């Protein structure tokens, strides 16, 4: 059973991470994306990116606290999938919503602070995606770890982005903010020490 | 049925039969699909094909002039833009009393009973009265094709049926000191599931107009859509349509209309006073604090089109706001 789980876990995670993309493509092909398909596609790709980013941030604590080692083996994949969905989100915004009308994009984006914050989060994810492979990990050495802690900053920026696009009821984005803050707290050195002493 | 100058320029006989508009092929859906596939192939690919992939609507208005053309057989507004389909208008609704999810409103309001219904008209009037649906139906109903611009940045063209609010107010004889009109929606958590205790908002929904706005000929009390009775998701049995203001001003399921001396506080002013003001006139030059209002997406189209001053009704309503600072009075 355990051997089966060890072998199946990674493929299952890949399947689960790709399923929203397949569903989105299926719904787009079948005109099933509401009557405002651009908005629906943006919301779904954005939400999936957020969920995957949070899951990637949860991997280290899952191992450290619950000893769930397989989580570490999918951490990079989850982060890369988060970047994939964020890229799709960005591409829909640029190409479908704004039709790549660059002057209009420039003029509007500057007046949409949430768009700028989202873009900043996307840039961080891009940098992390590029440097996520062994080559860069070796090359950057200790600095790699500091660089990849920016994933938390990306998470916080994504929450700000999400909060700012909601018309009024911000309870959902706040719930996601609470989850990210909890994951961040778990990584703080003080908490780590307490864990080592067996207090948490 | 009586038609106004800003309604469709087409005679009733030229209007597409119901069976046809339900099946109107949706060119933009195909565009969306094609563009989606191109985008899926990568931003680069989409960029190389930008003209074909996602034609922007800005500056690319349909050229339909006044008068009917053989291809434009459905409803259209006075600018020549076709009305949105009945399916679009009745399945994509902002109506937080039922759901925050626009697609869920029609589902959750399906069994909402909008009859019997009464509207109380009172406050600073000489002849306060309660109107039932029959009394409202006795007022001459007109068809008007209005643009509806949501504050979120999307828009539709909608063939409403109804009567000018002015005609209702004249029946109750406004007192000379009445300066504002306050509208109140139904408050009934048993029938409007999202009005319950966990809701974020202070129900009921309230909106307001200045007296001269309320008496303006464009201000319509709506009872129908596409020549049929209004459906619950669109605010049955009685809603407002103020086409030069953002959609949230056009309050639904009205049960009370009061004439006041002072400016009423609307639900959105109460929920986010720095973002939603009393006037809420469509204005491409006054941005929402968190997003621009310069452009909008017409439902059913790809890309964006420029937002028009007062939603394209500038000639009719600009004089109401002469000398007013529209940035301060957002």
Can you characterise this structure?
The complex is a heterodimer of chains A (200) and B (330). Chain A has ten helices and no strands. With 200 residues, chain A is mainly α. Chain A has one domain. In chain A, helix 2 packs antiparallel against helix 3. Chain B is α+β, with helices and mostly antiparallel strands and 330 residues long. Chain B has one domain: Sulfite Oxidase, Chain A, domain 2 (Alpha-Beta Complex), CATH 3.90.420.10. Chain B is 20% helix and 20% strand. In chain B, strand 4 and strand 5 form a beta hairpin. The longest helix of chain B is centred in the N-terminal third of the chain and has 14 residues. About 18% of the residues of chain B have low confidence.
Let me know the largest β-sheet of chain A.
Answer: none
Which structural category fits the helices and strands of chain B? alpha+beta
CATH architecture of chain B: Alpha-Beta Complex
Question: What is the typical, i.e. mean, pLDDT of chain B?
Answer: 83
End-to-end Cα distance of chain A, whole Å, is: 30 Å
CATH class of chain B: Alpha Beta
Shape of chain A: globular
Number of helices of chain A: 10
Share in β-strands of chain B? 15-25%
**Helix and strand sequence of chain B:** EHHHHHHEEHEEHEEHEEEEHEEH
For the secondary structure, the number of strands of chain A is 0
Q: What form of chain B results from the Cα inertia axes?
A: globular
Number of helices of chain B: 11
Q: Helices and strands of chain A: which structural class? A: mainly alpha
Strand percentage of chain A, roughly? Answer: under 5%
Q: What string gives the helices and strands of chain A in order? A: HHHHHHHHHH
Largest interface: A-B, 38 and 47 residues
Distance between the termini of chain B: 36 Å
